[in-house]
Amino acid sequence: MTTAKTYRFSYADGSRELEAFVAYPSSPIALPTPVVLVAHAWYGQDSFAREKAEMLAGLGYIGMALDVYGKGRHGSTAEEGSALMTPWVKDRAALRTRLMAAVMTARELEGADAARVGVIGFCFGGLCALDLARANAPGVKAVVAFHGLFFPPDLGHQGPITARILALHGYDDPMAKPELMVSFMNELTAAQADWQLHAYGSTSHAFTNPAANDADNGLVFRPQSATRAFQAMENFLRETL
Known about the structure:
Layout: E1 3-13, E2 16-25, E3 33-39, H1 47-58, E4 62-65, H2 78-90, H3 92-107, E5 112-122, H4 124-134, E6 140-146, E7 164-170, H5 178-190, E8 195-200, E9 213-214, E10 219-220, H6 223-240
Parallel strand pairs: 3-4, 3-5, 5-6, 6-7, 7-8
Antiparallel strand pairs: 1-2, 2-4, 9-10
């Protein structure tokens, strides 16, 4: 299945203008169709996130790359990415509100099934995806975090989590070491979540991104693990959506 139509459009969180990228499948699909959001890594919505929206369209979903930072805001260096991401990591309440705006927008897309929404996210986007699961965002049934950040938002009591969760993780990831991985699993268990975690050996952070080539900081593309992770995602979305 290939992508038939892609386009960008503006949506908003309060007064902040955001820009989504949407991809629709080309083959005839049953309507309404599940929509899967793509949460970007720390640089902001980029070609990698948009390509994943098109990949999802190729699997028969409506893919939508969301925008946390605002239209036209993105970084190109580690310093710029950190400067963009850090305020949101420190203010998870504001992040939750920004992400909820994307979910509500996705549910209103033409042909979308508002009751069958998925979210996938990479690095910072993995944290975003998991925060939407923690928030029990309307319609969100499935969440996939690729090399995500695991620390909880600390926004008060966490009730039962209804979305199913799949975390795809490098065991050697310096940003989420094994002890944090265990803490995360304990958190999800306490929240009565239906969760899975696949840990890949000899695999570090950003392992799905062909541009990751900073071994000193633990950012390394690993094709074998990436292939396994995307296949796990495909199976999981087919099961849950």
